[in-house]
Structure prediction request, 545 residues.
Amino acid sequence: MIKNISNLGDAALYCDFGKEVNEEINSYVITYFNHLKKLVEDKSIQGITNLSPSYNKLIVSFDLSITNFQEIKNKIETIKILNNKKKKSKKIQVPVCCEEKHALDLLNLSKKLKTNPEKILSLFFSKEYFCYMTGFIAGMPFLGDIDESIRVDRLKTPRVKVPKGSVGLTEQFCNIYTFESPGGWNIIGNTPKKIFNKVDLNNPALIKPGDKVSFYKITKEEYLNWND
Amino acid sequence: MTDAYFEILRAGTNSSIQDQGRKNLYHIGITISGAMDQKIFKISNALVDNNLNEGVIEFAYQGPLLKLKNGSVNFAITGNIDFNIIRKNSIIEKGRCFQNYFLDKDEELDLIYTKNSVFGYLAVEGGFKIEKVWNSYSTNTKAKIGPNNGEKFSIGEKIYLKKSEVKNFEKKNIEYNNSVATTIRTIKGTNFDYFSKEAKNNFFNEEYQVTNLSDRMGMRLEGPKLENIFNTNIKSEGLVKGVVQVPADGNPIIMFSDHGSIGGYPKIAVIITADHDKAAQLIPGSKIKFKEVNLDEAESLFKTYSKETKSYLEKIK
Prediction:
């Protein structure tokens, strides 16, 4: 449930569902998101320009020339969410090449964690991950939770360019850079698989919130010859 | 009648089609994009009698050199732009911003540079012949989304116009005050209290300088380091245009139109909507101060901003 609503600047609401990150809190965020999305689509709420769900927050952007913080806050406070049903999740497998060229931060990571690179990778590949949200760049999935022994902070200064397909770790999460972009995650490999298909306007993102994702290792040759 | 088009003889630094931006796609990671300076983008359309949300060419620093092939066009340039119109027989006519012009077949438009500002706009009557992608003409070159396959324009390309000929050319212009901001007004961010007392004090009292690492996505600033005493990472969450994030290195980054939809650095402040346009126009090396306002003040400053925009648009009619 929403614990607090505050303003993020003058044109967005910051709905806080709590500090913890887990599937239960996340599913409340998604439920509110879906509810509001429907109100926007049915035009029963005016002025909302974007909804941005994440692990435990929902940011609602609005057009200040149509509405304001107090109006949207009042509307959201009247929403009653009764059941919080979980949707069936899809399972997706993602190939990753961890050759030196692609694993930009693997060596530094092994120094930081004082463990060898093979151990980091074997722990990474051994789990199935839950997709909490997609975003930052189009279709980028935020997945978790990675093994406790391979968790690190973001890079101190984000990279100006992270290559497309990079697979990164931060804290309890991992993700996939669907496009070249700036970014601060610790990169351990690269996938040749198409995670976001901009040509498919109805269903562009391969991985959606609630899906389960597992990774498997591929060789340089398999990477180069990959065909979706 | 052959279709009129511009041939790009020089593409410029970063020339792309933009409009008001995209809506309701943050949740799949598609950001808003759209014109960095919304006010003068709208004015450019008004000067050529367009719908205010028609797609225009946004350019930064050095603009494009365009040659009109076939037909004729009614165009307007907004911003603080040094530009020439190269008429027949190579006669050079000095251009004036915030005024429309008639350009005939084989004449050229040379957008030389943006003076003491970053962005300028070229609108043509009727608009450019391009397809909307996700309900917007805006180009996001990072995600490769939008017209022209999401790419900025390059030399040799052709940009077709919806209208091939100007029927009744009517002169329009306004006086526009291209002021340069030295103060940017903000509301405290959701992580304001993550920062040390000194950092909070510095943020609102010291000067910050715009660095070269600035584009449509974000603007990195340098100044007294902003020390985070709580946690330099937050759980990734949504971002909006105008958020000032501070990574562990203590240097603030302002989020602009092509910003990532989600971010994990603490938010020290958010620039008020009324100041988005002028913040976007700050050139590298500019020194600014952040000023704190509350939500009520921000809302009333937005009303002033809207009124000002409206009064410019009414003067054009």
